[in-house]
Amino acid sequence: MAAFELAAESAIVDDAAELARFTRWREPKDGRRLAESSLRIGGMHCAACAVTIEQALRSVPGVVEARVSAAAQLASVTWDAQATQPSAFVDVVARAGYSAVPDTAAAARAMRVAESRDAIWRLFVAVLCSMQVMMLAAPAYVSGPGELGADVKRLLDWGSWLLTLPVMLFAARPFFTGAWHSLRNRRIGMDVPVALGLLVAFVASSGAAFDPGGAFGHEVYFDSLTMFVSFLLGGRYLEMRARHRAEASLEESMGRLPDAAWRENADGSVSAISALRLQPGDTVRVAVGQAFAADGVLVRGSTRADEALLSGESQPIEKAPGDEVVAGSINVGAPVAMRVERVGADTRYEAIVALMRSARSLRPASIAAADRWAAPFLWSVLALAAAAGVVWSIVDPARAVWVSVSVLIVTCPCALSLAAPSALLASATAMARRGVLLRRIDAIEGLARMQTLFIDKTGTLTDAQEHGVACMIRVGVGDGIGDGESDGATRYDGDALRAIAASLAAWSLHPLSKVLSQQGASSLVWNDLREVPGQGICGRAGDGVVWLLGRSPLMVAANDSSEAETWLSRDGRPVACFRVVEAVRPGAAEALDALRRDGVRVALLSGDASRRVERVGRLLGVPDSRGGLTPHDKLMAVREAQARGESVAMIGDGINDAPVLAQADTSFAMGAGAQIARAQADGVLLSGALADIVQARALAKRTLRVVRQNFAWAGAYNAACVPLALIGWLPPWAAGLGMATSSLVVVFNSLRLARSR
Amino acid sequence: MDILYLLIPLSSVLVLAILGVFAWALYGGQFDDLEQHGEQILEAAVDSLDPHQRG
Known about the structure:
The complex is a heterodimer.
Chain A: H1 2-9, H2 16-20, E1 23-26, E2 34-42, H3 47-58, E3 63-69, E4 74-80, H4 86-95, E5 99-102, H5 105-142, H6 150-171, H7 173-184, H8 191-210, H9 222-254, E6 260-264, E7 270-274, E8 283-286, E9 295-300, E10 303-306, H10 308-311, E11 317-319, E12 324-325, E13 330-331, E14 336-342, H11 347-361, H12 365-395, H13 397-410, H14 413-433, E15 436-438, H15 443-449, E16 452-456, E17 462-464, E18 471-474, H16 494-505, H17 511-516, E19 526-532, E20 536-541, E21 546-550, E22 563-570, E23 573-584, H18 588-597, E24 601-605, H19 610-620, E25 625-626, H20 631-643, E26 648-652, H21 658-663, E27 666-670, H22 675-680, E28 683-685, H23 691-726, H24 732-755
Helix pairs in contact in A: 1-4, 5-6, 5-9, 6-8, 6-9, 7-8, 8-13, 9-14, 9-24, 12-13, 12-14, 13-23, 13-24, 14-23, 14-24, 15-23, 18-23, 23-24
Chain B: H1 4-27, H2 36-39
């Protein structure tokens, strides 16, 4: 079996270079070196298996935490580097009857091919043999009493037995190994009743075939048996195909997230290029809130880097010029420049993959509930089957065997355990295709249930216009004329101020900064750059003068026009004001309108001047528009709504939104927003169009409906079929068909979500 | 009906032979990507044409 071959090779995964591809390191306080590895599990087919693997993983000394997601077939293992090695738990998974490979896309694809070949092969053996067995069984059905000679009957039974052997020994092996492993781990899984049913039917039929006068009577069930196995394998094959498709499209959409880097050219100008085009030796600017696009060394500025995504270390790490920075970590301190040393085409990609991975191995509460039901459900099935066997052996001994076999195989906990995960996964796939990437699959539930939606203004609802002219008004205070503190000869004309503002703005990610930086060459050298969320960016120029670009230090009366104001101050005194034309994003009004009609209370939270925010609010028909908020105020607004018991969602884009996004029940970040916002949010709107949220919410509501339908169907199926089997109205082949169909109904019902539009 | 004593064992053996052929095709990769060959006709590269097929 493939699982055991993998076990022999598993020592390779301990190699440090291999390890880095699927493991993230974290350094917790108590001095232990912990790592979190992501493994792709093969051979899993229901939620009960996930629990078995989790227990097997946790039994390894040194494994701190293990989570397995049945829907995505992924395991996330946290382990102590001093106590264990990945090969140890890869071997344990293999011994439990499954295969585990490091979760990188290529290995996963190869595994999908292997899994698919294995499934087709078993399915083909079962189907072909069951057709032949059916042919050999037909004479016994159509002949009248005495028409079929005893010799011919024995010959046909013998042929059926021979053709059933490959089905029992090969095609049905997944059921037997699955049952064996769950029994050995002292658990009861979906495969136990199936394997028991197969075994009972096969032993009874073989006895009847070779000794027609013996204890087992003369009835053979080879046709029911083989057909049952083919139906079940057919169901699992279709289920596997659906899962493979969902996984493949999720992997694809992960790779599509664009990523830009700001490269400094030889002449001092800055151009935005794809991070994939970076070369070692390039100098790249990294604004606050942006991720380092490659591995390298800081050349200008000191900052703090948040490596939580990569190492699990939650405290930002101080970085001075000359220190190494890691691709994918986020700059949270000050704008800096770095020299690229190593480019991996996949460095940043790996960070996104890590995000998606953590989303997929988190199990929503509804799925955990289904897992808890599985064990008691299966025990009662075994008890019922035994009771039915005993009762029928008194009433009508000839039917005792097949009634209890029918009871064993007609029940379908698989449909119950697939009800929620299959729907959520299908829905996440459909959203990913439309540009809504989910980090936490729970967000689907939050999205459907949200009552209040807080939206950030600048960058989320409004867009600074690239063509909107940034008018400059010279205030005339402290613009270098005779204020004595510099050399007295410094004069700033309009172009010089524009250039200063532009070069300062080039270090910031704020939407207004992006427009301002277009206004002039951004080649000035800045020292001690700092960016304060909600305030602005300041830096010391080469001549020692400190410039601040952002809010006015004097709080000049806020304007009520459609233009946003940004002030440039020199040593604390405002020098110039830039007005940038700001327009509401196309489609934002319609999207908010649709959300309101849907019963969502929409509120605007912004750090901008209140009157401007109110004006945008009036434009969009949002009465609850609050301006002048600090990041802390925004946080308090969300907490207040949560204290009222509302389910709160938040959409934002900037570094000042990150804590709020983490606080809200459900949160989305704009794809063009700061990396730190994307890292805190539950989902990312890649295109930045608010209409996507409306569609995603409609899909999320449908998803919850589908989950309810699935649970209703699985419950109704079991409630209807178990009594039928108990009173002897369901032969084993019909029970097999029923079981396979009920799983398939659930999976296909869920797949409607993935296909929608 | 004596022929049945030959035909039934023969058909059983034949089934096993068919299974062998299918296994060879499967593990040769013929079922790995069923769309690939259908889509090949739409791809720009025409190198797979034989010399006499080119116009």
